[in-house]
Amino acid sequence: MLNERVADSEAGRELRLLGLDLEFITDHKKEFSRNAALYRALDERVQVVGRISPTLTPAADLVNKLRQFRPNLSHWRRNMHFNPHLFRQRTAVVQRYLDSMGGEYDVILQTYLQFAPGSGPGRAPYGVYLDATFEMSRRYYPVDHPLSKSVFEKGVSRDQDGEA
User: Fold this and answer.
1) Rounded to an integer, what distance in angstroms lies between the CA atom of residue 89 and that of residue 119?
2) Mean pLDDT of 69-85
3) Which of 33, 36, 91, 95 gives 116 a disulfide partner, CB atoms 3.0 to 4.6 angstroms apart?
4) Apex CA 133: angle with CA 31 and CA 98, to 5°?
5) Which H helix or E strand runs over 5?
6) DSSP secondary structure string, 72-134?
7) pTM of the full predicted structure?
């Protein structure tokens, strides 16, 4: 299916890309954000037909924050910005956007993994762009990665050896 789309692109029809991110900008061509330059570079090779940062309504955002309440403020902040409920809510926002696009795109590019690239049947091919590694996150955000380095390395070693 993607090969057909690439063939269409080579035959004169430009590949239509849809971006999903948490950039919270309105125009990637004029505004600065972490990945706006990525979209500008892609615009030179393919047609970026849209992008969305899935945000909740103020009421849904408040419900999410209340559901994630923790007495420890840093734990609460971490949980209110990344949790299964928020993942599902953002995914639902993305799916509504994809439905509104009526299939007027060929491929989806998503940055990070804070939501799914839609939930409906027949979803277009997609790619995920990550500009961080687990090691970088563990080093610079240790509170989000409670495993010690030795325990982590032992797990990686077991994975590489094919152990369960």
Assistant:
1) 11
2) 88
3) 91
4) 50
5) helix 2-10
6) SHHHHHHHHHS-HHHHHHHHHHHHHHHHHHTT--SEEEEESSSS-S--STTPPPEEEE----H
7) 0.72
